[in-house]
Structures
1.
Amino acid sequence: GFCYDPSKMYHLEMIFKHENVGNQVKDLLHGFGIKSSIFERNENYVLYIKEAEAISDFLSLTKAYNSVLKLENVRAFKDIKNNVNRRFNFETANLNKTVDAALKQKLIIEKIENTIGLESLDPLLLELAYARIENPDVSLKELGEMMTPKISKSGVSYRLNKLKKIADDL
């Protein structure tokens, strides 16, 4: 049998001439909690394991401890890399949403400014409009912390919706 390079994929195979021998090994592995499957290829029977943890358990069972250590190092590295990528994608998506929302809010504020003027707004909305214009890349929470007195994220959202309604009515 053989094991693929775990940095590329998790896959271990054992090849048997006789199906009953492959099934006996499969049953034996099942007794140790190792999930495996069998298929036929070129008049042989291939028992395979696809899960990294099951491969690690199999290697431990066969006392291939150096291989277990190598596999676990690869798994740890891949796990860290995947977590970093997930976090980066999450942060990028949040930043993109913040920027898109801020741009829409800026357009609403500009519409109000160009039609009735910002000075026609009540003081709370006026302060929020100026804060958004001066800080186009901050989140609603950060925008609320700039207000005097500070307001919550939902309070900022409520006031921005009021600005949108004013702009929609123009």
Note: The chain has six helices and four strands.
2.
Amino acid sequence: MEFTPKWIAWEITRRCNLNCVHCRSSSQLEIEGHPDFSLAEAKRILDDIHAYANPVMVLSGGEPLLRPDVFDIAAYGTGLGLRMCLATNGALVTESVCRAIKEAGIKMVSLSLDGATAEVHDNFRNQPGAFAGVMEAIRLFNEHRIEFLVNSSFTRRNKAEVPKIYRLVKSLGATAWYLFMIVPTGRGEDIMDELIPAEEYEDILNWHYDMEREEHDLLVRPTCAPQYYRIVLQRAKAEGERFKRRSLKFSTGGSKGCLAGQLICLIDVDGNVLPCSYFPLSAGNLRTQSFREIWEHSRLLLDMRDFAGYKDHCGRCEYLQVCGGCRARAYAMTGDYLAGEPFCAYRPGQ
């Protein structure tokens, strides 16, 4: 496998206007100790990355629309030839924001929707009116012909919403739907009791397989669920048929399970390069090292690419190369990022 950075999420601010139950970022409008970096620093980082690779760059947060220069950052990346995207909760989307998205050359916008009704979504987001904000943002995106995708995160409190949200997203004109199986990071560490058990997790992924096999319009993919790629092979073998999975726009293509530190990473607001958005350990810092140096020489990233070093049931699994287990979830639950995926129900040889 060639380890080339294809997709980078970039936390351009830690400030946010919501207080979501699962988020790794901060639910404050002013952040002590983690200030926004300057526009000059943003341009320097984009130049550094562009000199080495040509990844999709997702401007994230926090809520990136809280930065007044977010579109200056996006336009600079577009000018370099990078594919710039935006991840927002939708609450701050207006007509003028839509015009700025198009002028800055942003190619895709992602929104989060965690319930098919205001009651469920607003409860998950700890914010009355959050659902209405997402619906208004989607209306504006459709009106301005801005492509958008929807991310949905699931815990015990909203697991029954999975098929309902899928049907809603399909009706709203989204380009893609990503089903996220939550990783306990940030405030997510406080919701261990809300995590979906491994057996129910497996049921949801089997539902997704059946849905994806019949879905021909909406692009779909489970995320932070690497064992789905094991299920795809198991089901195809058992049922004697295989369906051609479509590549997603502005992603890694979804050919393998956990891609953290292999094809993707996160840059946090302090300049740390993390293997993914849910992995709290830093591989290096862009204020003292080049992106290339970190990507090619970080011990943390090299460990994650050395599948022979994986432990427990992941290390013994015949599906290791296509799944790999969620490294962030392994670290969150065991303290060892090479340990077996704790929410996988499959055990090799049984």
Note: The chain is about 35% helix and 15% strand.
